[in-house]
Amino acid sequence: MVSSPKSRRQRSKPSGGFDARRFCSLPHAAAPAKRAAVYLLAATSGLRRAELGRLRWGDVDLERGVVMLRAKTTKNREAAVIPIPGRTVSMLSSLRGRAKGTAAVFKTIPTIRTFYNDLAKAKVERESSAGILDFHALRVTFATLLALAGVPLVVAQRLMRHSDPRLTANVYTRIELHDKRAAVDKLGDLLVAPLGAAPETSTTNTDVTNATSTRSRARRAVGVGVGTGDDEASCKRRVDEASNPEPSVLETDALPA
Fold first, then answer.
1. What's the pLDDT tens digit per position in 141-169?
2. Closest to 218 in 3D by CA, of 142, 154, 138
3. Domain ranges of the chain
4. What is the DSSP letter of 33?
5. CA 222, CA 43: separation in Å to the nearest integer?
6. Given 1.10.443.10, 3.40.50.2000, 1.25.40.10, 1.10.3720.10, which CATH number is that of 15-241?
7. H helices within the chain, ranges in order?
8. Confidence tier at 92 by pLDDT (50, 70, 90)
9. Local structure of 14: helix, strand or coil
10. pTM for this one?
11. Which residues, 6+ apart, have CB-to-CB distance to 218 below 8 Å?
């Protein structure tokens, strides 16, 4: 079978991922709130589009902060328990109301047209050097945020439910290259300083592993999103201020087996 130009193009350029600040814009551009919750849950749990559509309220334990995927609803037909951050729990709690456990969490999942319309409202380009921002990009975003937060590769693989660790490693390799490039670029600032003059930034500021580095600023990135009463500006401010070197990225001790 001959592939269409569109399918060839999509395969030649993979799904990219949102950075934390750009993702802040997306849920706020989406209306109603349930659509924003779809995006937030996808980006903070790594659930696939079909898995989101099959999710029932009985699968969501809001007290424990976990989503329990039934084997028949997952791609690999294996059950899984996925922890979700507090902001995602808060948003889901505000949406449940009196829904029964058998009721679908999301009656509809946004089509690609709706998704692109929300990107346009959020002023986010569909395509970048990192790849295409399609719905799958929300899952890639989850992996990217785990990498930036310093989550060990083996843990990220379990959370992503990748059977092949190379799939997870591909994301981690891209992030590590970005961090190495940022570190090397800082050398230029030292080289252009007048001979004998102290560099403008202190050793603390140039240390790429300190609390203001890319990794440490993103340590709470998996938890960014919209909760009740949040606005886009406060979401982006949390990303900028997320410099605590030791927070729990997933805000729970539960990990899938």
1. 888 888 878 888 889 899 999 888 888 88
2. 142
3. 15-241
4. H
5. 8
6. 1.10.443.10
7. 5-12, 20-29, 33-45, 49-53, 86-96, 112-121, 137-148, 153-160, 165-191, 203-206, 214-217, 232-241
8. very high
9. coil
10. 0.68
11. 20, 145, 148, 149, 239, 242
